[in-house]
Amino acid sequence: MIGIYGGTFNPIHYGHLRTALEIKEILNLSEIRFIPCYQPVLKDQPFVSATARFNMVELAIETQAGFICDRRELVRQGASYMVDTLASLRMSFQQQPLLLLLGMDAFGSLTQWSRWQTLFDYAHIVVMSRPENPQIALTDFFKQRLIKDIAPLKQHTCGKLYFQKVTPLAISSTEIRKLFLQENSPRFLMPDNVINYIEQYKIYRNFNADQ
To answer: pLDDT tens digits for 91-110?
Structure first.
């Protein structure tokens, strides 16, 4: 089984990394593919280039076995629609179960995504929930796909919905950007080699931290 973890990663931090590691171990995934978004559709375009964000992800995961930085959205360019990304991945991994990993916020806005129902034709969706997350009301569409244990994720290549609790780490990319802007240290919130990269290229200087 392969995990698919998309996002702007602006910048990547230990909240992303710890969650991915827990999911990989709990679900016994062969790998997790981090896919930096080239051009978000439901968010403003990040101030930081897609190439720089890709480089930060590569640095962050370089020592972790089974973590891969996938550049397919950067190569494709244009608006980054996850349904197109999953279609591309399905062509590469025709027999493997693909698990699209989403946080609760992303799942809450899923019905705003382009061709969101088609996502299930290419992958399972695993929602990474925190213990304090309230129960959400599911529509019949989601209830028909909801499973309570992980066995069907292995038995089918796509089509299921599963909720997995993960350790909450209240780390925010927005707050990290503000730390850099204020010339304060984000150490222990993210890998040191990513911090060094950001400082070397002055990535988060003279910009709006909310972008």
So the answer is: 999 999 999 999 999 999 99
Q: Looking at the 3D structure of the chain, how many domains does it have?
A: 1
Q: Does residue 16 sit within a domain?
A: yes
101 in a domain, yes or no? yes
Give the DSSP letter of residue 109: T
In this predicted structure, what is the pLDDT of residue 42? 73
**Residue listed under structure tokens 């040191």:** 192
Chain-centre distance for alpha carbon 170 = 16
pLDDT at 183 over 80: yes
**What are the C-alpha distances in Å from 48 to residues 11, 118, 153, 183, 209?**
9, 30, 35, 17, 11
Q: Domain holding 51: CATH number? A: 3.40.50.620
Does 178 reside within a domain? Answer: no
pLDDT over 90 at 128, yes or no:
yes
What's this model's pTM, rounded to 2 decimal places?
Answer: 0.93
In a domain, 206, yes or no: no
